[in-house]
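Listing S7. Sequence submitted for prediction.
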Amino acid sequence: MESLREKQGYICDMDGVLYHGSKLLPGAKKFVDWLKRRGKQYLFLTNSSSRTPEELSGKLAAMGIQVAPEHFMTSGIATAGFLAAQNPGGSAYVIGDNGIRQALLENGFRLVDKAPDYVVVGETETYDYRQIEKAINLVLGGAKLIGTNPDVSGPVEEGIAPACRALIAPIEMVSDRQAYFIGKPNPLIMRHSLKRIGRRREETLIIGDRMDTDIIAGIESEIETVLALSGITKEKDIHRYSYRPTYVLGGVGDIPEPD
């Protein structure tokens, strides 16, 4: 535990680690207060592209945790940065919420519904048949297909809900095109996150609740990992994977020193 606590940079997942839906998880506030008190460099990284950093800051504030917007990284931000580097001033047809839309606009992209360079899909509660149909035909017309993250599902208070990969699957199947996914475990988002906190990978720890995104993202980026058993992956599931986290904890509340 002392080795874990001596890290200078912390990249921490949100859903399933800090909260479920609108319910704060035990120990989350204690952990964030500890990060601030110890002067750690930290970033809350979510594979969801739905919300902006300002909205995420507000969500935590409503739960009693004060974190400024600059401490958040989303798959929407990483996706927008990647596309802006690939095709500056490009255009996209977007199926997704405010987080990905704002990120693309801030990176100089145009949001269009005719002849886009890209079709970009993220999480949204307004997903419908006509959007799927339009996206398929735009991809068949030459647009490149991009997913903000490869998550099939995500945790909600009632259990789980479909996430980006589940939403993009009909477009892939009908168009016979494979999407490129930017979020975890793609090392692109991890390199982006390391630059944001200004720390080397040896000084950094990634904390998450999923073996198939958070933990493999750390392993592929050579960053030590903590699996928090407060979300999707349970202890009984770990043996199903061909890799292991560096640490396994009940939740982030176990990280600060005991009172």
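Caption to Listing S7: primary sequence and predicted structure tokens for the chain studied. The domain at 87-181 is CATH 3.40.50.1000 (Rossmann fold). The longest helix spans residues 75-86.
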